[in-house]
Write a structure and sequence with these properties.
Layout: H1 2-10, E1 64-65, E2 68-69, H2 76-87, H3 101-113, H4 118-134, H5 143-158, E3 174-179, H6 186-199, E4 204-209, H7 214-227, E5 231-232, H8 240-253, E6 258-263, H9 271-284, E7 288-294, H10 300-311, E8 316-320, E9 336-341, E10 348-353, E11 357-361, E12 369-371, H11 374-382, H12 385-411, H13 417-430, H14 433-437, H15 448-466, H16 470-474, H17 477-481, H18 483-493, H19 497-521, H20 529-542, H21 547-552, H22 554-564
Parallel strand pairs: 3-6, 3-7, 4-5, 4-6, 7-8, 8-11
Antiparallel strand pairs: 1-2, 9-10, 11-12
Helix pairs in contact: 1-15, 1-19, 1-20, 2-3, 3-4, 4-5, 5-11, 5-12, 6-7, 8-9, 15-18, 18-19, 19-22
Bound molecules: guanosine-5'-triphosphate (GTP).
Catalytic activity: GTP + H2O = GDP + phosphate + H(+)
Keywords: GTP-binding, Hydrolase, Nucleotide-binding, Ribonucleoprotein, RNA-binding, Signal recognition particle
GO molecular function, one term: 7S RNA binding
Amino acid sequence: MEATTALALSASPTGARRAPEKAPAASLHLRRFSATSSLHLRAAQSPALRSRASPFQGWWRSRRAGGLVVRAEMFGQLTTGLESAWNKLRGVDVLTKENIAEPMRDIRRALLEADVSLPVVRRFIESVSEKAVGTDVIRGVKPEQQLVKVVNDELVQLMGGEVSDLVFAKSGPTVILLAGLQGVGKTTVCAKLASYLKKMGKSCMLVAADVYRPAAIDQLTILGKKVGVPVYSEGTEAKPSQIAKNGLKEAKGKKTDVIIVDTAGRLQVDKAMMNELKEVKKAVNPTEVLLVVDAMTGQEAAGLVSSFNDEIGITGAILTKLDGDSRGGAALSVKEVFEFVGRQARREYILVSGKPIKFVGQGERIEDLEPFYPDRMAQRILGMGDVLSFVEKAQEVMHQEDAEELQKKILSAKFNFNDFLKQTQMITKMGSFSRLIGMIPGMNKVTPAQIREAEKNLKFMESMINVMTPEERERPELLAESRERRRRVAKDSGKTEQQVSQLVAQLFQMRARMQKMMGAMQGKDSPDMNELMESIKAEEQAADGTARRRRKYGNLRQRQLDAMRGFRRR
Ligand SMILES: Nc1nc2c(ncn2[C@@H]2O[C@H](COP(=O)(O)OP(=O)(O)OP(=O)(O)O)[C@@H](O)[C@H]2O)c(=O)[nH]1
């Protein structure tokens, strides 16, 4: 991986990136529904509990069973649906396009039944199918277990990949503005969030800007007392934006770290609500604008995210009442928002960026709020923690074997273009280059711009390697020694001869550097990644060299030439 990273970083920049397109906002139809606030159920799985379906799109109403609260198995319905997919793969040796077709249909059905939107499901299925078929067979891991892992990784990505932390203002109080429809749990979230932040050592103040429901102010005052944070209110007569502004002034005076502004909800997204929110936002310039969404809204959560974002601009979402949701559609619909474009008949959707879920509410108690961890959520959906850790361990062993093999090659100076390709493909399979590079010790000083360049360069280099003969890939010396061969690679890949020569030269430099590093790691010398990075950066600038640059990096070039060992122009 280091080899590939460094090689990519040291190559000259090429190509251009396409900017994502922005689509018009989707229209919304929102419905009011009753909250299943205190009961938890495994509704979808139990025919006995299905007898009274809720009026809202078949959500099953909470019921007490023999006086006992039946607690939901999180997203039980989805979990069960996915199980049938794994079962269909029992007995197969390897995942193929043909044998995954039926399990993929099960996964598709399970996701749709969980109320995940169609374009999200389509993209998900496409991506899982592609990755499942392309996955290397791992010794000792059954194909169905491998598919579980692929689905897990894709679910994690679908929910945002990583934890999205709250952002705090650099100076003065951090303002968190909560928005959302009526009854979704905004007031409760205010108190939960304040309690969470208090535990982090932050001082908080709540601001009661919901003036339409008098009980909301009382509710916030009671909750504020309960969690031990002051509540700023001016009754129901003042304007919400003025209350928020005054609240912020008071918080500044008291040097409070965070203020959380509770706003009024409406039954549906309407102009008056949005205008009022815009005014409040303008008055306090919040660091975070969080949309509070009831988990039971299912895929309509995507529409809410999109319309609130278009109207007021939000920074993330908080999903409440996850404890009463056995389907999971909302959790899977917030980060990836597709919008409908074109004519109905053509059903075209484009991906517009969604928003990260920052917290989830899983009950009515103050402590029932936690940061949203996409990986933990995916594991809960799949209900297959054991299988996942088993596959991960097996992968580790495989990587270790690969690494040992690579180490042998490096030490005997045999690192070739095949190894290079293998490393690149591994990076692609494992995920973003940017994420990986941060994990390499000493590499964290690399800037995002450099990483983007490196990613581009990998593709550029791959295109040249792809047209090399197997022999040339195995023995780069052949290319180093023959101008004819370099010319042919240049012609076939549509690059210049100079670019091919540069690539070959870089491979040799890389060999030399890696040998040096390996030697260092085996105790001969202390490895200095910073020095390595400096040299890579210097090469990057020198690559297309002006005379001045050439003078400046003259010594370096000489060292590179020495390192190339045997690379001669004929
Ligand atoms: N089960 C469960 N109930 C919740 C959760 N969060 C909030 N509630 C309940 O949902 C109901 C409505 O919560 P509120 O905080 O009053 O909602 P709101 O968005 O402020 O309501 P409006 O001010 O009318 O817009 C209350 O009964 C809460 O106890 C949760 O995570 N799980």
